[in-house]
Input
Amino acid sequence: NTNNFDYASYHTLEEIYSWMDSLEAEYPDLVTKIQIGSSFEGRPINVLKFSTGGSNRPAIWLDSGIHAREWITPATGIWSAKKIASDYGRDPSLTAILNTMDIFFEIVTNPDGYYFTHTSNRMWRKTRSINPGSSCVGVDPNRNWGAGFGGPGTSTNPCSETYLGSFEHSESEVKSIVDFILGHGNFKAMITIHSYSQMLMYPYGYTSTETPNQQELHTLAKSAVDALAALHGTKYTYGSMITTIYPASGTTADWGYLNGIKYSFTFELRDTGRYGFLLPAEQIIPTAQETWLALMKIMEHARDNPY
Amino acid sequence: QKLFVGDQVLRITASSEEQITLLKELQDLEHLKLDFWREPVKTALAVDVRVPFAGLQALKVFLESNGIQYRVMIDDVQMLLDEEKEEMFRSHDRER
Output
Protein backbone atom coordinates (compact mmCIF):
# COMPACT_ATOMS: atom_id res chain seq x y z
CA ASN A 1 0.00 0.00 0.00
CA THR A 2 1.61 3.24 -1.13
CA ASN A 3 -0.05 5.22 1.68
CA ASN A 4 1.93 3.29 4.26
CA PHE A 5 5.17 3.38 2.33
CA ASP A 6 8.00 5.17 4.14
CA TYR A 7 8.80 8.03 1.78
CA ALA A 8 11.38 9.40 4.22
CA SER A 9 13.71 6.45 3.80
CA TYR A 10 15.89 5.05 1.04
CA HIS A 11 14.70 1.78 -0.47
CA THR A 12 16.08 -1.16 -2.39
CA LEU A 13 15.25 -1.77 -6.04
CA GLU A 14 12.93 -4.61 -5.07
CA GLU A 15 10.99 -2.35 -2.71
CA ILE A 16 10.71 0.37 -5.34
CA TYR A 17 9.49 -2.05 -7.99
CA SER A 18 6.98 -3.46 -5.54
CA TRP A 19 5.84 0.07 -4.71
CA MET A 20 5.29 0.72 -8.44
CA ASP A 21 2.97 -2.28 -8.62
CA SER A 22 1.07 -0.98 -5.60
CA LEU A 23 0.68 2.47 -7.13
CA GLU A 24 -0.65 0.97 -10.33
CA ALA A 25 -3.10 -1.17 -8.37
CA GLU A 26 -4.32 1.74 -6.26
CA TYR A 27 -4.84 4.13 -9.17
CA PRO A 28 -5.95 1.82 -11.98
CA ASP A 29 -7.67 4.61 -13.92
CA LEU A 30 -4.60 6.81 -13.90
CA VAL A 31 -1.41 4.77 -13.55
CA THR A 32 -0.03 2.07 -15.80
CA LYS A 33 3.34 0.42 -15.44
CA ILE A 34 5.08 -0.09 -18.76
CA GLN A 35 8.25 -2.08 -19.32
CA ILE A 36 10.22 -0.30 -22.02
CA GLY A 37 13.22 -2.62 -22.03
CA SER A 38 15.68 -4.60 -19.97
CA SER A 39 18.93 -3.59 -18.36
CA PHE A 40 22.29 -5.15 -19.22
CA GLU A 41 21.83 -7.68 -16.42
CA GLY A 42 18.26 -8.39 -17.44
CA ARG A 43 16.28 -6.32 -14.98
CA PRO A 44 13.07 -4.76 -16.24
CA ILE A 45 13.21 -1.07 -17.11
CA ASN A 46 9.90 0.22 -15.87
CA VAL A 47 8.10 3.47 -16.57
CA LEU A 48 4.98 4.73 -14.83
CA LYS A 49 2.47 6.23 -17.24
CA PHE A 50 0.00 8.74 -15.82
CA SER A 51 -2.84 9.23 -18.25
CA THR A 52 -6.48 10.21 -18.07
CA GLY A 53 -7.25 8.95 -21.55
CA GLY A 54 -6.93 9.83 -25.19
CA SER A 55 -4.48 8.38 -27.60
CA ASN A 56 -0.96 9.63 -28.12
CA ARG A 57 -1.50 12.82 -26.18
CA PRO A 58 1.37 15.27 -25.86
CA ALA A 59 3.58 13.96 -23.13
CA ILE A 60 6.09 14.84 -20.45
CA TRP A 61 9.07 12.62 -19.67
CA LEU A 62 10.61 12.51 -16.19
CA ASP A 63 13.46 10.30 -15.10
CA SER A 64 15.61 9.82 -12.02
CA GLY A 65 18.37 7.51 -10.93
CA ILE A 66 20.43 7.36 -14.12
CA HIS A 67 23.56 7.71 -11.96
CA ALA A 68 23.24 4.87 -9.52
CA ARG A 69 24.72 6.45 -6.40
CA GLU A 70 22.44 9.51 -6.57
CA TRP A 71 19.92 7.84 -4.26
CA ILE A 72 18.12 11.07 -3.50
CA THR A 73 16.86 11.16 -7.09
CA PRO A 74 14.76 7.96 -7.13
CA ALA A 75 13.64 8.82 -3.60
CA THR A 76 12.43 12.17 -4.94
CA GLY A 77 10.93 10.36 -7.92
CA ILE A 78 8.89 8.03 -5.73
CA TRP A 79 7.52 10.91 -3.69
CA SER A 80 6.73 12.91 -6.84
CA ALA A 81 5.00 10.01 -8.58
CA LYS A 82 2.81 9.50 -5.53
CA LYS A 83 2.11 13.23 -5.56
CA ILE A 84 0.99 13.07 -9.19
CA ALA A 85 -1.35 10.19 -8.45
CA SER A 86 -2.81 11.59 -5.25
CA ASP A 87 -3.14 15.19 -6.42
CA TYR A 88 -4.97 14.41 -9.62
CA GLY A 89 -8.54 15.65 -9.14
CA ARG A 90 -7.48 17.73 -6.14
CA ASP A 91 -4.87 20.12 -7.42
CA PRO A 92 -6.43 22.14 -10.26
CA SER A 93 -3.16 22.85 -12.05
CA LEU A 94 -1.92 19.27 -12.03
CA THR A 95 -5.38 18.08 -12.99
CA ALA A 96 -5.33 20.46 -15.95
CA ILE A 97 -1.97 19.07 -17.02
CA LEU A 98 -3.21 15.50 -16.88
CA ASN A 99 -6.41 16.37 -18.68
CA THR A 100 -4.39 17.39 -21.73
CA MET A 101 -1.07 15.58 -21.41
CA ASP A 102 0.37 12.27 -20.26
CA ILE A 103 3.27 12.00 -17.85
CA PHE A 104 5.82 9.20 -18.09
CA PHE A 105 8.08 8.70 -15.08
CA GLU A 106 11.08 6.38 -15.04
CA ILE A 107 12.00 6.22 -11.36
CA VAL A 108 15.09 4.01 -11.60
CA THR A 109 16.78 4.61 -14.92
CA ASN A 110 19.83 2.49 -14.09
CA PRO A 111 18.47 -0.53 -12.18
CA ASP A 112 21.67 -2.61 -12.39
CA GLY A 113 23.73 0.23 -11.01
CA TYR A 114 21.19 0.96 -8.30
CA TYR A 115 21.13 -2.71 -7.25
CA PHE A 116 24.95 -2.67 -7.21
CA THR A 117 24.98 0.35 -4.89
CA HIS A 118 22.87 -1.62 -2.41
CA THR A 119 24.78 -4.87 -2.62
CA SER A 120 28.41 -4.18 -3.48
CA ASN A 121 29.54 -0.59 -3.86
CA ARG A 122 27.50 2.32 -2.57
CA MET A 123 29.58 4.74 -4.65
CA TRP A 124 28.87 3.13 -8.03
CA ARG A 125 27.76 5.55 -10.75
CA LYS A 126 27.74 3.82 -14.13
CA THR A 127 25.83 1.01 -15.79
CA ARG A 128 27.10 -2.56 -15.25
CA SER A 129 27.83 -3.50 -18.84
CA ILE A 130 31.05 -5.31 -19.66
CA ASN A 131 33.60 -3.45 -21.76
CA PRO A 132 35.39 -5.79 -24.15
CA GLY A 133 39.15 -5.66 -23.69
CA SER A 134 38.94 -3.93 -20.32
CA SER A 135 38.60 -5.15 -16.77
CA CYS A 136 36.65 -2.00 -15.94
CA VAL A 137 32.88 -2.28 -15.94
CA GLY A 138 30.19 0.17 -16.96
CA VAL A 139 29.44 3.19 -19.07
CA ASP A 140 28.35 6.63 -17.94
CA PRO A 141 24.78 6.63 -19.22
CA ASN A 142 24.77 10.42 -19.25
CA ARG A 143 27.53 10.48 -21.88
CA ASN A 144 26.06 7.75 -24.06
CA TRP A 145 23.31 9.64 -25.90
CA GLY A 146 23.45 10.64 -29.55
CA ALA A 147 24.00 14.33 -28.92
CA GLY A 148 27.52 15.46 -29.66
CA PHE A 149 28.55 11.91 -28.77
CA GLY A 150 32.28 11.68 -28.10
CA GLY A 151 32.71 15.43 -27.72
CA PRO A 152 34.15 17.41 -24.84
CA GLY A 153 33.56 16.25 -21.28
CA THR A 154 33.64 12.55 -22.06
CA SER A 155 36.28 9.92 -21.55
CA THR A 156 37.28 7.10 -23.87
CA ASN A 157 38.82 5.24 -20.94
CA PRO A 158 36.48 2.45 -19.73
CA CYS A 159 37.89 2.89 -16.23
CA SER A 160 36.74 6.52 -16.09
CA GLU A 161 33.49 7.54 -14.40
CA THR A 162 32.61 9.49 -17.56
CA TYR A 163 33.33 6.68 -20.05
CA LEU A 164 31.10 7.31 -23.04
CA GLY A 165 30.71 3.70 -24.22
CA SER A 166 31.77 2.09 -27.48
CA PHE A 167 29.03 3.74 -29.57
CA GLU A 168 26.04 5.98 -29.01
CA HIS A 169 23.10 4.27 -27.30
CA SER A 170 25.27 1.23 -26.58
CA GLU A 171 23.62 1.00 -23.15
CA SER A 172 20.25 -0.71 -23.13
CA GLU A 173 19.24 1.68 -20.33
CA VAL A 174 19.68 4.56 -22.79
CA LYS A 175 18.53 2.80 -25.96
CA SER A 176 15.26 1.77 -24.31
CA ILE A 177 14.38 5.40 -23.63
CA VAL A 178 15.47 6.54 -27.08
CA ASP A 179 13.32 3.92 -28.78
CA PHE A 180 10.37 4.62 -26.54
CA ILE A 181 10.42 8.39 -26.95
CA LEU A 182 11.01 8.30 -30.69
CA GLY A 183 8.34 5.62 -31.07
CA HIS A 184 5.87 7.75 -29.13
CA GLY A 185 6.70 10.85 -31.16
CA ASN A 186 4.79 13.41 -29.13
CA PHE A 187 6.92 14.32 -26.12
CA LYS A 188 6.95 18.04 -25.33
CA ALA A 189 9.07 18.12 -22.18
CA MET A 190 11.90 15.97 -20.89
CA ILE A 191 13.32 16.37 -17.41
CA THR A 192 16.14 14.26 -16.07
CA ILE A 193 16.96 14.40 -12.37
CA HIS A 194 20.48 14.21 -10.95
CA SER A 195 22.12 15.32 -7.71
CA TYR A 196 23.86 17.19 -5.94
CA SER A 197 24.93 20.62 -7.16
CA GLN A 198 21.71 22.62 -6.84
CA MET A 199 21.34 23.49 -10.49
CA LEU A 200 18.68 23.56 -13.16
CA MET A 201 20.12 23.41 -16.65
CA TYR A 202 18.95 23.40 -20.23
CA PRO A 203 20.82 22.59 -23.49
CA TYR A 204 23.44 22.63 -24.64
CA GLY A 205 26.17 20.78 -22.80
CA TYR A 206 28.23 19.73 -25.80
CA THR A 207 28.58 23.12 -27.45
CA SER A 208 28.66 26.73 -26.36
CA THR A 209 26.25 27.62 -29.15
CA GLU A 210 22.97 28.84 -27.72
CA THR A 211 19.76 27.08 -28.66
CA PRO A 212 17.13 29.04 -30.64
CA ASN A 213 14.97 28.85 -27.50
CA GLN A 214 17.62 30.18 -25.13
CA GLN A 215 15.57 33.12 -23.90
CA GLU A 216 12.44 31.13 -23.20
CA LEU A 217 14.32 28.30 -21.50
CA HIS A 218 16.28 30.74 -19.38
CA THR A 219 13.17 32.56 -18.24
CA LEU A 220 11.44 29.29 -17.49
CA ALA A 221 14.44 28.00 -15.54
CA LYS A 222 14.43 31.16 -13.44
CA SER A 223 10.75 30.83 -12.60
CA ALA A 224 11.31 27.17 -11.68
CA VAL A 225 14.23 27.82 -9.34
CA ASP A 226 12.40 30.77 -7.79
CA ALA A 227 9.46 28.50 -7.04
CA LEU A 228 11.80 25.89 -5.60
CA ALA A 229 13.60 28.38 -3.38
CA ALA A 230 10.35 29.73 -1.97
CA LEU A 231 9.78 26.61 0.14
CA HIS A 232 12.99 26.03 2.07
CA GLY A 233 15.27 28.76 0.72
CA THR A 234 17.40 26.35 -1.32
CA LYS A 235 19.35 28.38 -3.83
CA TYR A 236 19.84 26.94 -7.30
CA THR A 237 21.98 28.27 -10.10
CA TYR A 238 20.59 27.90 -13.60
CA GLY A 239 21.55 28.29 -17.23
CA SER A 240 22.79 26.20 -20.10
CA MET A 241 24.73 23.10 -19.10
CA ILE A 242 28.00 24.25 -20.62
CA THR A 243 27.96 27.64 -18.92
CA THR A 244 26.56 26.47 -15.58
CA ILE A 245 28.53 23.32 -14.86
CA TYR A 246 30.90 22.10 -17.56
CA PRO A 247 31.15 20.84 -21.12
CA ALA A 248 29.43 17.46 -21.28
CA SER A 249 28.60 15.60 -24.45
CA GLY A 250 26.16 12.79 -25.06
CA THR A 251 23.75 13.90 -22.35
CA THR A 252 20.06 13.19 -21.92
CA ALA A 253 18.93 16.81 -22.02
CA ASP A 254 20.83 17.62 -25.22
CA TRP A 255 19.47 14.50 -26.88
CA GLY A 256 15.92 15.47 -25.94
CA TYR A 257 16.31 18.94 -27.34
CA LEU A 258 17.98 17.78 -30.54
CA ASN A 259 15.11 15.38 -31.07
CA GLY A 260 12.46 18.08 -30.96
CA ILE A 261 11.66 18.25 -27.24
CA LYS A 262 11.94 21.96 -26.58
CA TYR A 263 11.44 21.89 -22.83
CA SER A 264 14.44 19.75 -22.01
CA PHE A 265 16.02 20.21 -18.60
CA THR A 266 18.37 18.54 -16.17
CA PHE A 267 18.19 18.97 -12.43
CA GLU A 268 20.96 18.71 -9.86
CA LEU A 269 19.17 18.33 -6.54
CA ARG A 270 20.17 19.87 -3.25
CA ASP A 271 23.53 19.71 -1.61
CA THR A 272 24.21 20.87 1.88
CA GLY A 273 27.93 20.88 1.22
CA ARG A 274 28.37 18.17 3.82
CA TYR A 275 27.07 14.93 2.43
CA GLY A 276 27.25 14.78 -1.37
CA PHE A 277 25.70 11.53 -2.53
CA LEU A 278 25.09 10.50 1.07
CA LEU A 279 22.28 12.93 1.74
CA PRO A 280 20.61 11.88 5.02
CA ALA A 281 17.20 10.29 4.61
CA GLU A 282 15.63 13.01 6.73
CA GLN A 283 16.22 15.37 3.81
CA ILE A 284 14.32 13.28 1.27
CA ILE A 285 10.92 14.86 1.86
CA PRO A 286 12.12 18.49 1.90
CA THR A 287 14.13 17.82 -1.26
CA ALA A 288 11.16 16.24 -3.00
CA GLN A 289 8.78 18.98 -1.87
CA GLU A 290 10.93 21.79 -3.22
CA THR A 291 11.75 19.93 -6.42
CA TRP A 292 8.07 19.36 -7.04
CA LEU A 293 7.43 23.10 -7.18
CA ALA A 294 10.05 23.50 -9.91
CA LEU A 295 8.79 20.46 -11.81
CA MET A 296 5.30 21.92 -11.76
CA LYS A 297 6.51 25.21 -13.22
CA ILE A 298 8.06 23.39 -16.17
CA MET A 299 5.10 21.08 -16.68
CA GLU A 300 2.65 23.98 -16.48
CA HIS A 301 4.68 25.88 -19.04
CA ALA A 302 4.66 22.89 -21.38
CA ARG A 303 0.90 22.62 -20.94
CA ASP A 304 0.29 26.32 -21.58
CA ASN A 305 2.67 26.70 -24.50
CA PRO A 306 1.88 23.95 -26.98
CA TYR A 307 4.08 23.76 -30.05
CA GLN B 1 30.52 -5.20 0.04
CA LYS B 2 33.13 -2.59 -0.59
CA LEU B 3 34.23 -0.74 2.55
CA PHE B 4 35.16 2.91 2.68
CA VAL B 5 36.71 3.02 6.16
CA GLY B 6 38.79 6.17 6.56
CA ASP B 7 37.97 7.47 3.09
CA GLN B 8 37.36 11.19 3.08
CA VAL B 9 35.62 13.55 0.70
CA LEU B 10 37.56 16.77 0.23
CA ARG B 11 36.05 19.98 -1.04
CA ILE B 12 38.81 21.69 -3.00
CA THR B 13 38.71 25.32 -4.01
CA ALA B 14 41.05 26.21 -6.84
CA SER B 15 41.97 29.86 -7.11
CA SER B 16 43.55 29.92 -10.57
CA GLU B 17 43.52 28.16 -13.89
CA GLU B 18 46.94 26.76 -13.04
CA GLN B 19 45.49 25.03 -10.01
CA ILE B 20 42.61 23.69 -12.10
CA THR B 21 45.15 22.21 -14.49
CA LEU B 22 47.00 20.58 -11.59
CA LEU B 23 43.75 19.07 -10.33
CA LYS B 24 42.89 17.79 -13.79
CA GLU B 25 46.25 16.05 -13.92
CA LEU B 26 45.33 14.26 -10.70
CA GLN B 27 42.44 12.62 -12.55
CA ASP B 28 44.93 10.70 -14.66
CA LEU B 29 46.78 9.23 -11.68
CA GLU B 30 44.86 5.99 -11.49
CA HIS B 31 46.94 4.54 -8.66
CA LEU B 32 45.46 7.15 -6.28
CA LYS B 33 41.97 5.77 -7.05
CA LEU B 34 40.42 9.22 -6.65
CA ASP B 35 36.67 9.39 -7.20
CA PHE B 36 35.79 12.86 -8.45
CA TRP B 37 32.25 13.68 -7.34
CA ARG B 38 32.59 17.10 -8.91
CA GLU B 39 35.28 17.52 -11.49
CA PRO B 40 37.77 20.37 -11.78
CA VAL B 41 36.37 22.72 -14.39
CA LYS B 42 36.62 26.33 -13.36
CA THR B 43 37.59 28.29 -10.28
CA ALA B 44 33.99 29.28 -9.51
CA LEU B 45 32.99 25.65 -8.94
CA ALA B 46 34.24 23.64 -5.99
CA VAL B 47 35.82 20.26 -6.66
CA ASP B 48 34.64 17.36 -4.51
CA VAL B 49 36.73 14.22 -4.48
CA ARG B 50 36.48 11.01 -2.51
CA VAL B 51 39.95 9.94 -1.46
CA PRO B 52 40.68 6.40 -0.29
CA PHE B 53 42.38 6.34 3.10
CA ALA B 54 45.64 5.05 1.63
CA GLY B 55 45.99 8.09 -0.62
CA LEU B 56 44.89 10.77 1.81
CA GLN B 57 48.31 11.83 2.98
CA ALA B 58 49.72 11.99 -0.51
CA LEU B 59 46.86 14.07 -1.82
CA LYS B 60 46.86 16.49 1.09
CA VAL B 61 50.61 17.00 0.76
CA PHE B 62 50.11 17.62 -2.95
CA LEU B 63 47.38 20.18 -2.35
CA GLU B 64 49.21 21.96 0.43
CA SER B 65 52.50 22.09 -1.41
CA ASN B 66 50.74 23.70 -4.37
CA GLY B 67 48.84 26.17 -2.22
CA ILE B 68 45.47 24.69 -3.15
CA GLN B 69 42.79 25.23 -0.52
CA TYR B 70 40.62 22.39 0.67
CA ARG B 71 38.45 21.32 3.54
CA VAL B 72 37.21 17.94 4.64
CA MET B 73 33.59 17.64 3.55
CA ILE B 74 33.09 14.07 4.81
CA ASP B 75 35.45 12.90 7.51
CA ASP B 76 34.81 9.18 7.18
CA VAL B 77 32.64 7.92 4.35
CA GLN B 78 32.08 4.56 6.02
CA MET B 79 30.59 6.18 9.11
CA LEU B 80 27.98 7.91 6.95
CA LEU B 81 27.29 4.67 5.10
CA ASP B 82 26.82 2.84 8.39
CA GLU B 83 24.38 5.50 9.53
CA GLU B 84 22.54 5.23 6.22
CA LYS B 85 22.30 1.46 6.56
CA GLU B 86 21.05 1.71 10.13
CA GLU B 87 18.44 4.22 9.04
CA MET B 88 17.23 1.80 6.37
CA PHE B 89 17.05 -1.07 8.87
CA ARG B 90 15.11 1.12 11.28
CA SER B 91 12.72 2.02 8.51
CA HIS B 92 12.14 -1.67 7.72
CA ASP B 93 11.36 -2.40 11.36
CA ARG B 94 8.95 0.49 11.69
CA GLU B 95 5.33 -0.49 11.81
CA ARG B 96 3.61 0.49 8.60
Observations:
- Chain A touches chain B through 27 residues (CB under 8 Å).
- The mean pLDDT of chain A is 97.
- Residues 78 and 107 of chain A are 7 Å apart (CA to CA).
